[in-house]
Amino acid sequence: MEQPQQPAGPEAGKPPLRVGMVGYAFMGAAHSQGWRTVGRVFDLPRRPVLAVICGRDASAVRAAADRHGWAETETDWRALIARDDVDLVDICTPGDSHAEIAVAALAAGKHVLCEKPLANTVEEAEVMARAAETAYGQGKLAMVGFNYRRVPATALARRMVAEGRLGTLRHVRVTYLQDWLVDREFPLTWRLRRELAGSGSLGDLGAHIVDLAQHLAGERLAGVSAITETFVRQRPLPGGPASGLSATSADDTNSRTRTDTGTVTVDDAALFTGRFASGALASFEATRFATGRKNALRLELNGERGSLAFDLERLNELWFHDATEPGTHAGFRRILVTEPDHPYLDAWWPPGHGLGYEHTFVHQARDLVHAVAENRSPEPSFADGLQVQRVLAAVEESAEKNSVYTPIAD
Predict the structure, then answer these.
(1) Residue 249: CB partners within 8 Å, gap ≥ 6?
(2) What kind and span of H or E run contains 334?
(3) What residues form DSSP beta bridges with 21?
(4) Which of 20, 70, 135, 410 would you label with 30, given CA atoms 20 to 30 Å apart?
């Protein structure tokens, strides 16, 4: 067994927090960046160690380990959980395996970090939340990875709302727009299959904006009304032959039968409105068919005393309107969120030197390490993840009930 190199400098003498990660693709790479970097930036009470990474393809997981700095590999997550040199299990797999891995890891006495959405169903999420509650009584923590809470600008927004800068909240509106499914020849990957992903844009993107909206508002949604749509219902199987169909054909590809295609069983887009417990209104849009939009998460909160606006594509900025100022010079102003007294930024660069997407995972690791060292419930917890799952389920139920349009007369 390869032994991790002993640290020198400020990390020397700190107890290790040995991480085992399941999954190594997009999220695995992002989480690896977080674990690899966090101890070099923040002064932590424990020293994260990239102990072992797991994936079913031995050669691919070995390449990922070499690329991202993991000491060892496994090809069976059960073997990873059974290891004595793993303190925390980081789950970066498709949603269909979250519950099984997380529950087993907690039962084995490991801390757990699980990517969002927490599970594919409310029932699975309930099992996970109960397991996390039991494990917490035994000193083991479980956190769900809603990384957009860890953008310094959104963390500052939460602080300002909590301080009462907006007064009574009236509106929250959030959109999360991507376009990577616009090409109808994009293959039928796991994200387009309900049995693996649980849902489509709703779970992939909607989970983020539901959590972020509730987190920033400081309250939960009480109800929703929704519509969803799947625009392309048949897609080429991964690795299958080219379809040979023209994208400009007058025929609808959705209505054709092809032997090299499979059925998309999740939503491509979800639109829903909601009401918070306080009576504030909310609107949400999550789609992977917004042509030209790559990762456009935007939100705005309007209150009686002011408003806040954030755009992930300009993630070092937060816009604030103070409605208590005289109208002669009031208006939205830009806050450049790079000052050392802004959230997380005392450990980074001088003011004006912005951060990026990958830093949200560094901040996520930082917060979890502190929670583990202090034996306090992390945020967001599995209970928080379960509540988001219930909102997603309510959206799907509403969309099913509202699937028949009422025609509007000319």
Answers:
(1) none
(2) strand 333-336
(3) 53, 90
(4) 135
Query: 1 Cβ partners below 8 Å, 6+ apart?
Result: 72, 85
Lookup: tokens for 114: 């699980």
Share of residues in the chain with pLDDT > 90 (%): 88
Q: 3-state class of 143 per DSSP?
A: strand
Amino acid at 257: T
CA nearest neighbour of 291 among 180, 210, 193, 148: 180
CA distance 402 to 121: 21
Closest CA to 215 of 159, 281, 280, 177: 159
Q: Does residue 102 contact residue 114 with C-beta atoms inside 8 Å?
A: yes
How many Cα atoms occupy the beta-carbon half-sphere of 290 within 13 Å? 18
Q: Which bin fits 115, alpha (ψ -120 to 50), beta or left (φ > 0)?
A: beta
Residue 136 CA to residue 145 CA, distance in Å, equals 18
Tell me the per-residue pLDDT of 17-76, one tens digit each, with 9 for 90 and over.
999 999 999 999 999 999 999 999 999 999 999 999 999 999 999 999 999 999 999 999
Cβ neighbour number for residue 308 with a 10 Å cutoff:
26
**Strands (E) located in 159-280:** 169-177, 221-229, 234-236, 261-263, 269-276
What are the structure tokens assigned to 124, written together? 């699975």
Query: Is-contact 293 255, C-beta < 8 A?
Result: no
Contact by Cβ (8 Å): 80, 54: yes
pLDDT, tens digit, 9 for 90 and up, residues 283-339:
999 999 999 999 999 999 999 999 999 999 999 999 999 999 998 988 999 999 999
Give the CA radius of gyration of the chain: 22
CA distance 71 to 149: 30
